[in-house]
Amino acid sequence: MPWPGKKDNPAGNDAKSAQSAGAATPIKAGPARPRCGTCILRPHCLPAGLAPEALRKFENIVQHSANLAPGEHLFRVGDKFHSLYAVRTGCLKTCAVDPNGREHVINFHFVGELIGIDAIFPEQHFSDAIALVESSVCHLPYRAISQLAREIPELQLQILRGLSRHVFSMTSISGDFTAEERLAAFLVMVGARHRLAGGASTELQLAMSRQDIANYLRLATETVSRILARFQKSGLLRANRRQITLLNPEGLYAIAECMNPYSRCGINRHRPESGTTHR
Amino acid sequence: MPWPGKKDNPAGNDAKSAQSAGAATPIKAGPARPRCGTCILRPHCLPAGLAPEALRKFENIVQHSANLAPGEHLFRVGDKFHSLYAVRTGCLKTCAVDPNGREHVINFHFVGELIGIDAIFPEQHFSDAIALVESSVCHLPYRAISQLAREIPELQLQILRGLSRHVFSMTSISGDFTAEERLAAFLVMVGARHRLAGGASTELQLAMSRQDIANYLRLATETVSRILARFQKSGLLRANRRQITLLNPEGLYAIAECMNPYSRCGINRHRPESGTTHR
DNA sequence: CGTCTCCTTGACACAGATCAATTAACGTGG
DNA sequence: CCACGTTAATTGATCTGTGTCAAGGAGACG
Hints:
2 copies of one chain form a homodimer. Chain A is built from 8 helices and 11 strands.
């Protein structure tokens, strides 16, 4: 675990990491270089589309992290920024507790997504990044990556695209939508991520608790539960704790459609019949 | 009480001069090259900190826009993306109408801020950018700028910082806060922007309507009005339509503090650092 | 087989939305 | 300069979507 940002728990309050210590074995640390070239995520990650030579240079910079146990921190509020991270396996949340004691989940980070973008500017992390399940990330040392981006135009464009996509996706959930709409959109999004990572898009194994979902969607956990129950009653899905089966993805999508930026200019992929009106 | 950037329009009734000036009149158009070197915004804009030679190259790429009259579009949903914009004078909003007919104000863009970041990834605009008052922007042709960023390391870092700051600032308003907190934070933010652009930070001339503020803060316009009245009653400010006088900025700040990322790690006052209390 | 933690469900409360009416500014044209 | 229409802003009365409080279930795990 050569890279900082996750200096070992000084306070030792990552109790969980100790508990599942068996799982926290560093993944082929040391000399083994990451092989982005053979990573199934590459098409969705920064090195997408890099030429062989460029890819090699990129691989020389990237570092694999040790595995993160559920509940373990990747970085904490106050940590100095020096690296971006790309999720390789698992899922993390970034969150912060405000002075009034409320926890806000700023984002979930799925496989292939970047973590730490908001820390470039202040050069310091203002959120905690916490693994929700056993996870691993790639370290992208900021100095080196931005330096390399100057040599490799395609990499630079990829980075800018990545940051832009991050902004793009944030605009949806930050809008004014009902609880149903936000939760439906959340499930649709998780389904899409599952598919993207090669899984089934109708059988979702959520990585996060109801509490986390609620804090992300600006809801109470009870509301998340209730709306899931409502969705279940109307045959949209079947929910058993964190196991969600989407029975009627199109129906969910119809509810969430108003949050899809693409639906704003006729690019709409899905074309669900305009049957059910909610609200 | 000058609106930032209005310095050369003193006696001024902004709206009227805008109208009479004619929306299509290019500002010092034609051969006159933008002079970032003498722009008072430079410290807060992309070319901040560029060496003279780099600055010259940058100026050769940037294009000034024609002035935008209030209500005029800079771009529209569906437009192809080819340029970022930096606000030179005035204020714009980006917004979109969802399929249910609700308008969402995605962001306000004040002097010195970038517009269009979220369009890099999809290479297309998914929001409308509309001037709220007489405004002008600098065009930053994306191809040319990203190309130049490869030559000028400092520019590249500035761009990344700019995108990061954008993300950073979005995280606050997207959180779960009360209407009072969001409105207070909004006013504090506007005050800071005024100060940044050289104006008084307690005499605010809002560029946006109550409706726009409401759509931005996920509130009803009536709620915005009511909370302003409440603030006024408690002596925090004096509000007359779009003219806001902050009588007790510290009081407002106290309400908004929970939304300030910096208050999360003792950078700001308050915050008795009780070690790492993590749930 | 208790103890936990997470999740669900019900009853009730409230922040903020909605509906409705009034007032204040502004621009237009006479 | 004054009526006039139009739009923005305020204020009041009511309604409702979600939050809050409280009380179970139901797995997980030692």
